[in-house]
Amino acid sequence: MNDADSGPLMSSYGQRLEASESTQSLLSRRGSEFGNRYVQIDDAGIYLSSLAVTILLSSVATIGILLFTLVVTLSVMLGSCQSQPMLLHGSWGEMIRAPPPRQEEARGNPCESFRLNAEMNNLQGWLLPRECSSYVGNYMINGQYLLDVEAAVGAARSYLETIAPGGDGLDAIVLDIDDTVLSNVPYYTEHQFGVEQYNVTAWNEWVDQARAPPLRSMLSLYRQMVDANWSMIFITGRPEQQRNKTAENLFKAGFSDWMSLNLRFQNEVGTTAVNYKSSRRMQLERKGYRIRASIGDQWSDLIGPAAGNRTFKLPNPMYYIF
């Protein structure tokens, strides 16, 4: 290629180079004129002002600070929840925060363990430990006992409402009396809630007064079952000599319209509660009664033959009868 031939090509290339240099020179001048306010980000020609860069960096820093604060706050809340467990409470199951346990409660309560194992029938033949008198007293009179009775009665009601008694009067519910339908809490309040040894003289004086109040939830269930044509049958460990006072107390407390009231005969006095009550239930079955449920505060009310389709135990940490 000669110089003549290359002349136009070089001229064209030179023009493009000059134009490019002129554009860069113009941008450089504009950058100088405006205080270097434009910054080239890449070769595509995208430019940001220094003010926009400052705003962008500030926004990123602010978001980072907020996220860090949120993480720290959640960590503190989680630690607080772990140190103070949440408990379900109330009729609607709303969440409430339980107070932290006192130091003396952190190791547990041996009297609570005693009460639990007594109700589970693990401590057969027990006598209430003297050191647990105040604990059991608080349980019996400060509301928890009545709540536990209501829960047991509610379970019995739920079951019995699913059964329609026949029209022959032979579908029966068997009930104990003492601390099942009649409450002896007033008596045991005067006798250290079971710490004292059983005193037959003091007990008989209490029975003869015929003033034991009803357990209200049991009275409600009793009246409901009577209205539904169930046959209500009492089997108590009280001796036959106390029949009149027992019947008087039942009437005063609101229990009436029973089918049968069974007390111990003289020849049954030395019999264990389990054998005595099982024997009486079997007699009822031989007469044609269908025992659908038994309710009592002692395991001896509920175990043995002919106890029925279902049994329901009411709480009683004050004494044990075998």
UniProtKB/TrEMBL annotation:
Query: What Gene3D superfamilies does its record include?
Result: HAD superfamily/HAD-like
Superkingdom of this entry's organism? Eukaryota
> Which is one Pfam family of this protein?
Acid_phosphat_B
Which keywords appear in this protein's UniProt record, sorted alphabetically?
Membrane, Signal, Transmembrane, Transmembrane helix
Q: Which residues cross the membrane?
A: 46-79
Keyword set includes Transmembrane helix: yes
Cross-referenced InterPro entries: Acid_phosphat_B-like, HAD-like_sf, HAD_sf
- Specify the protein name: Acid phosphatase
The organism named in the record is Selaginella moellendorffii (Spikemoss)
